[in-house]
C-alpha cells in the first residue's frame, strides 16, 4: 500500500487515539464506561478532513542533534585553572576542555622528596647502629646473669631498629606512590574531549551542576538525529516507524528522509518559538519526538528543518470542495446501510449518510447526509445511542 495511504491512516488513528485517551483519562476527563452516561469524544468533520484544524497538521519544526550526550565531571579535590571552551563550541576528540591548577601538586612532590631523603638518612643511621650493636653482642662471651641480660638488651635494640627500618622503607614506598599519583595528575591537568560534538552546558554559579555531577555536557555528533515537538492535541497524529521527509528551511529543494523512532510522552516541554504545529493553543503541553535519519550528509548540528509526515509525491486532495469523509469513520447497519456516529445535542446518535465517489489513493468517500460542521466520533464497538458526547479539551 502506498505511503500516502499510511499517512492518511494515521489521521483516522488520531481520532481513535483521541477516544482511547479520553477513556483512559489522558486529557483529564472522567473515566467512562459503556453505558448511556458514557461520554464520547467528537470533533467537526471539517477538522477531521483537514480544514483549519490542528489535527490535520503534518508539518513540524525540527533541530538536528546528536544521538548521545557525554558528561564530563570535574574533581572536587582539585582546583579549576582555566576553562578552555564555551557553550555552543564544536569539539572533536582530543579538544582541551579545561585544566586544573598543578602548583600545589608540584609543591607536594618537593616536600615528598625531602621526606624520602630524611627517611633514607634515618635508615642509614639505623643500619650503622645495628652494626655496632651486633658487634657489641658478639663480644659478650660469658654466661653470667649480667651477660645474659646484656645480650638480651642488645638483641631487643637490634630488633627495634629493624622495625624502624621496615617502617621507614614502607613510608618511602607510600610516599613514592603519592609522588607517582601527583605526577599523573600533573600530566593530566588538561582534560580533553573523548567525543566529537557540541558543548551544550557548562556548570557555573548561574548554571549549576546536574544531579550526576556533570561539569561539561557534550552532545555527541557521531550519529545525528532530528528532534521535533508535538502538542497534546495532535500527539496521536504520529506513530513510531512513520516515514518522514526532512526539508531545509533555507533551501526547500534539499530534503532528507528518515522515520520516527521515539515519541517521548513522559517528558513535557514548554512552548517555544522553535515549535510549529499549526495550533493556536500556545499554552498546550508539548512532547518531544525523534527522527532517525537514513542519511545525514550535508546536515550540521543545530540546523533547523521542517519535518513532514510521509515520503511521497502523491498530490494532496483538496477537501474544501464538497463533503468528504475517511472510510474509517463509516459504519454499516445490519442491512448494509452506511451511517456515522454523530453528536446530537450532547448525545450520540446514528446518522445515515449516502456515499458518493470513492477516492482510493486517499481512502476517502464523497458523502451527503451530513455537513462539515457535523461533529462525529471514530466508531467503536461499544458505542450505543444516547451516550454523552464531548468536544474540545477540558480547561481550554
UniProtKB/TrEMBL annotation:
Protein name: Efflux RND transporter periplasmic adaptor subunit
Span of the signal peptide: 1-20
Keyword set includes ATP-binding: no
Pfam families with a match to the protein in the record: Beta-barrel_YknX, BSH_YknX
Listed InterPro entries: Beta-barrel_YknX, BSH_YknX-like, UPF0194_transport
The species this protein was found in: Pseudobutyrivibrio xylanivorans
Segments traversing the membrane: none
Gene3D superfamilies given in the database record: 1.10.287.1490, 2.40.30.170
Keywords attached to this entry: Coiled coil, Signal
Sections of the chain in a coiled coil: 116-178
Amino acid at each position: 500500500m502506498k505511503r500516502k495511504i499510511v499517512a492518511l491512516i494515521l489521521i483516522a488513528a488520531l481520532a481513535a487515539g483521541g477516544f482511547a485517551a479520553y477513556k483512559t483519562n489522558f486529557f483529564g476527563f472522567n473515566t467512562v464506561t459503556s453505558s448511556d452516561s458514557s461520554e464520547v469524544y467528537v470533533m467537526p468533520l471539517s477538522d477531521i478532513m483537514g480544514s483549519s484544524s490542528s489535527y490535520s497538521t503534518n508539518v513540524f519544526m525540527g533541530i538536528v542533534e546528536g544521538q548521545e550526550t557525554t558528561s564530563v565531571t570535574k574533581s572536587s579535590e582539585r582546583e579549576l585553572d582555566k576553562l578552555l571552551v564555551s557553550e555552543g563550541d564544536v569539539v572533536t576528540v582530543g579538544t582541551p576542555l579545561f585544566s586544573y591548577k598543578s602548583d600545589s601538586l608540584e609543591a607536594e612532590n618537593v616536600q615528598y622528596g625531602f621526606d624520602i631523603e630524611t627517611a633514607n638518612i634515618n635508615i642509614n643511621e639505623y643500619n650503622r647502629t645495628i652494626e655496632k650493636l651486633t658487634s657489641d653482642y658478639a663480644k659478650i662471651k660469658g654466661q653470667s646473669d649480667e651477660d645474659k641480660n646484656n645480650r638480651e638488651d642488645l638483641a631487643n635494640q637490634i630488633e627495634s631498629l629493624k622495625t624502624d627500618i621496615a617502617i621507614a622503607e614502607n613510608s618511602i614506598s607510600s610516599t613514592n606512590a603519592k609522588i607517582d599519583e601527583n605526577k599523573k595528575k600533573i600530566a593530566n591537568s588538561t582534560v580533553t574531549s573523548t567525543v566529537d560534538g557540541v558543548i551544550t552546558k557548562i556548570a557555573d554559579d548561574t548554571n549549576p551542576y546536574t544531579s550526576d555531577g556533570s561539569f561539561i555536557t557534550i552532545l555527541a555528533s557521531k550519529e545525528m538525529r532530528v528532534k521535533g515537538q508535538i502538542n497534546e492535541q495532535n500527539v496521536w497524529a504520529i506513530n513510531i516507524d512513520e516515514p518522514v521527509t526532512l526539508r531545509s528551511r533555507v533551501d526547500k529543494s534539499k530534503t532528507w528522509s528518515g522515520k520516527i523512532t521515539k515519541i517521548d510522552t513522559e517528558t513535557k516541554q514548554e512552548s517555544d518559538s522553535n515549535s510549529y504545529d499549526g495550533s493556536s493553543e500556545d499554552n498546550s503541553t508539548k512532547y518531544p519526538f525523534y527522527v532517525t535519519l537514513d542519511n545525514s550528509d550535508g546536515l550540521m548540528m543545530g540546523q533547523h528543518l521542517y519535518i513532514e509526515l510521509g515520503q511521497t509525491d502523491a498530490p494532496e486532495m483538496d477537501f474544501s470542495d464538497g463533503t468528504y469523509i475517511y472510510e474509517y469513520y463509516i459504519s454499516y447497519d445490519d442491512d448494509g446501510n452506511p451511517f456515522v456516529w454523530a453528536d446530537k445535542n450532547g448525545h450520540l446518535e446514528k446518522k445515515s449518510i449516502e456515499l458518493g465517489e470513492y477516492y482510493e489513493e486517499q481512502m476517502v468517500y464523497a458523502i451527503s447526509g451530513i455537513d462539515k460542521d457535523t461533529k462525529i466520533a471514530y466508531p467503536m464497538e461499544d458505542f450505543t445511542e444516547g451516550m454523552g458526547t464531548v468536544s474540545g479539551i477540558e480547561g481550554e
